[in-house]
Write a structure and sequence with these properties.
12 helices; Tetracycline Repressor, domain 2; mainly alpha; DNA-binding; homodimer; disordered C terminus
DNA sequence: TGCAACTGTGCAGAGACTGCAAGATTTTTG
DNA sequence: CAAAAATCTTGCAGTCTCTGCACAGTTGCA
């Protein structure tokens, strides 16, 4: 979202700017070191040193070592609320899936804009499946909030109805599969295109083989 | 699956039987303690003490503290391979989703058979979303292997085609949503029924609101 | 300028998890 | 059946993640 990239640096004030810089330095350091040595051969201390801050500061920015790799932008909590709001405000005539598509388009564009960074990130995620769950579905994106928002949009109960949780999970799966393919292709096609392909497959009821493939096939 | 519950205890030998007992003692201890105090207020040492083994032994059985709550049965690795085999051996005329349904039916039955235990487990998972991902989708079920198996069954490439990873993720989401509802209902309906409802919704292309709800509605 | 609000850092400490080697048990073998 | 092989349990030492706390340095603002 805009708050980091689109806002002119000067509008932020020195303090906020420094914070962004430190966050960035840490994620970049994490990305590089982990990319080279693997997650288990890099300590939080290594990353801190590489970024030029104390280990204690590292944990002021990230709750876990993994987060340094996964969280590309700060303010992830507010981000979840913004997303929820955007989902509710999407044109009422849109079905839930279309509304979600609208909601995520903005965020997904950032991936294409920083291709190298995200390719590095997903390369790491690919080698550590434990991270994959966390990045799309996990609490990073505010699972609970998102399910409730979906429920409200379609007028259902987040707990007593199957649909809201099902849709939320399915959307996460679609994004995960799309992004995995995006990375496998080296980021040649825009992410949004692949996500749309996933959503189309979903809307069509997951038709069997060749019809879904976005190219000819093997 | 059969290997633990269905095999007469005497056919296992003393050593194997003791191992099963210890595993069971640990998971039950973990389930109870964590259920009472919450995951963060229970240490691996607590669980070990409760189960009557040394802390070191705890980590001989589980790689992480969380696994003690999540892994209901041992041999999880072989289990993944068995599932893969079952998926390939399912009647060829079945579509992928039906084949998966057949594959998981057997495992899912165990949930209904041990309702209380699984309700306790899911109650914990519900409070710790980080666990949710791991239990269905994560490496616990051999993500990579499963995607490749799906790919083989439909004659596609696990990496270059969208479908296999998409189907795998979507199935995981369907199971997760179904089980969440199952737990919310206190296990009144058989899990298989709810999973079937999820799969039906998927096959129908995630039709919007009221049609999916498995009851009337709110 | 001077105070209030942050941010960075060191320190101490709890807890997760691992490798190693000794001791106890079970299974296998001859 | 007894000795050897295979396994399992455990204690120990040690690394690493992550947290609370207190203090020092900066930045924002009146």
């Amino acid at each position: 979202m805009p708050s980091t990239d689109h806002v002119p640096a000067q509008a932020l004030g020195l303090r906020a700017r420094k914070k962004l810089e430190t966050h960035r330095a840490l994620t970049m350091a994490a990305l590089r070191l982990v990319g080279e040595r693997g997650l288990e051969n890099v300590t939080a201390e290594d990353i801190s040193a590489e970024a030029g801050v104390s280990p204690r500061t590292f944990f002021n920015y990230f709750a876990t070592k993994e987060d340094a790799v996964l969280i590309a932008y700060p303010e992830s909590e507010q981000r979840a609320e913004q997303s929820a709001r955007r989902l509710l405000e999407a044109p009422p005539e849109l079905g839930p899936m279309e509304a979600v598509l609208v909601m995520i388009t903005e965020d997904v564009a950032l991936i294409d804009e920083n291709r190298e960074e995200w390719l590095a990130r997903f390369a790491i995620v690919d080698e550590h499946p434990a991270l994959a769950a966390r990045i799309v579905t996990g609490q990073l994106s505010g699972e609970r909030l998102m399910i409730e928002t979906i429920a409200r949009r379609v007028g259902m109960d987040a707990d007593a109805d199957l649909y809201p949780a099902l849709l939320h999970g399915v959307i996460g799966a679609a994004m995960k599969a799309a992004i995995k393919l995006w990375a496998h292709e080296g980021g040649r096609r825009p992410v949004a295109e692949l996500i749309r392909a996933s959503f189309d497959a979903l809307a069509a009821g997951l038709p069997v083989p060749a019809a879904t493939t976005t190219r000819g096939n093997s």
